[in-house]
Amino acid sequence: xxxxxxxxxxxxxxxxxxxxxxxxxxxxxxxxxxxxxxxxxxxxxxxxxxxxxxxxxxxxxxxxxxxxxxxxxxxxxxxxxxxxxxxxxxxxxxxxxxxx
Length: 100
Fold this sequence. Notes:
This protein is an all-alpha fold.
């Protein structure tokens, strides 16, 4: 059976084979991260932030479907306005998705 050029020259290094996929993923993550700052904030993000602020103030009355408030309790203490807090939450969410 004739050898292919890959078999004849030996195996390629793992780094060379991973260069394009890693570069493509890096570009995709950079583009995704840019959306954090350029995409409009939708009503549901304001609603979720309102729930977080209410929980932080001790006024949240709906215990169901509010598990996200425990993750983002730190937001109202760091930011004076909701837009800055929502952008910070988006960054946190994107970093968490990359790590996972």
